[in-house]
Design brief:
The chain has 312 residues and is α+β, with helices and mostly antiparallel strands. It has 3 domains: 2-50 and 62-94, Helix Hairpins; 101-210, Cupredoxins -  blue copper proteins (Immunoglobulin-like, Sandwich); 218-309, Orthogonal Bundle (Cytochrome Bc1 Complex, Chain D, domain 2). 35% of the residues lie in helices and 21% in strands. It has 7 helices and 12 strands. The protein has helices spanning 2-5, 17-48, 65-94, 200-210, 218-228, 267-275, 298-309; strands at residues 101-108, 111-115, 121-123, 125-129, 133-140, 145-149, 154-158, 164-169, 174-180, 193-198, 254-256, 262-264. The strands form 3 sheets. Strands 3-2-1-5-8 form a 5-stranded mixed beta sheet, with no helix packed on it. The chain has a 5-stranded mixed beta sheet with strand order 4-10-9-6-7. The longest helix has 32 residues, at 17-48. It is elongated. It starts with a helix and ends with a helix.
């Protein structure tokens, strides 16, 4: 019977996925049995008690205690089994192993910013070791998101102003897709990421190579920050139109605002647009950008501006 439902689920890549799949199959199998049984009963009674002539009258049946108790108690017992099974699985998903490697993941419109304990940062890529539990600590910078990795059967809301978490253990090297499953605005369907699983040795090598955060000249740091903060999700660097104005040729240009006024793009305008993007909205664009006040330092803003100056 399990093979019948394999097409309904992606490959299970975490040990905790087995109990989730087993409950899923149990619910489907019980539902299938009930569907077939009820359908057969309906057809049988429709034929048995069909009206054969004008004089046929259906006898009045008040109740049947045995039948009524059966169809009340049996579904109740099935519900108890499903609840107990599901609650046990939920407790397991909330009990993080002591040796779990912790990763900070911040959801924002529309991407995932990932930070590791040695200062390494990535955008929309979560690098994890094979065969070791991983705890993902979740937070949101703006609105409600939801972190969902089908291959590991983990899903949790990402709530502004509080921390939530999920954990899983990747059984083999490879990649899995991360979805946001809570509608969060225009770019919701593009809010995708990848879990990239390395062998333990390769993971340690990756950490050493990428540790310490952004580095290089101010322009190079600015370019890295633009990537890490997810700016390229909404702003292109080649002149193409996305959710927000393109960065290409932006510096020192004249922008027409939604109120009909114009503004010259200089340091102060760019700083204001980063910290309080709703203050001046460029014509034909919507006010959908999340303010970065408190999320980014003055030095980082300066480096981003230095990078934008180079995109002629």
């Amino acid at each position: 019977m399990d093979r019948l439902f394999e097409f309904m689920l992606p490959e299970a890549k975490s040990p905790t996925a087995d109990s989730t799949d087993a409950l899923f199959h149990f619910i489907n199998e019980v539902s299938l049995v009930l569907l077939i049984g009820i359908t057969i009963a309906l057809i049988y009674f429709a034929i048995k008690y069909r009206r054969r002539s004008e004089d046929d009258e259906t006898p009045v049946i008040t109740h049947n205690n045995t039948l009524e108790i059966t169809w009340s108690v049996v579904p109740l017992l099935i519900c108890f089994v499903i609840f107990g099974w599901g609650y046990t699985g939920w407790l397991n998903l909330k009990s993080v192993p002591d040796n779990a490697y912790e990763i900070q993941v911040n959801g924002f419109k529309w991407g995932w910013n990932v930070k590791y304990d040695n200062g390494a940062q990535t955008l929309n890529e979560i690098h994890v070791p094979e065969g070791r539990p991983v705890k993902i600590v979740l937070q949101s910078s703006d609105v409600l998101h939801s972190f969902f990795v089908p291959d590991y059967r983990v899903k949790h809301d990402v709530v502004p102003g509080r921390y939530t978490y999920v954990w899983f253990e990747a059984e083999e090297a490879g990649e899995s897709i991360v979805f946001c499953t809570e509608y969060c605005g225009t770019g919701h369907s593009d809010m995708l990421a990848k879990v990239i699983v390395h062998t333990e040795e390769d993971f340690q090598t990756w950490l050493e190579k990428n540790g310490g955060g952004v580095s290089g000249t101010p322009v190079e740091q600015g370019e890295q920050l633009v990537q890490l903060q997810g700016c390229t999700t909404c702003h292109s660097d080649d002149g193409s139109r996305l959710i927000g104005p393109s960065f290409k040729g932006l510096w020192e240009s004249e922008e027409t605002l939604s109120d009909g006024s114009t503004v010259t793009v200089d340091e102060n305008y760019l700083r204001e647009s980063i910290l309080n993007p709703g203050a001046k909205i460029v014509e034909s664009y919507d006010n959908v950008m999340t303010p970065y006040e408190g999320r980014i330092s003055d030095e980082e803003i300066t480096n981003i501006i230095e990078y934008l100056k180079t995109l002629k």
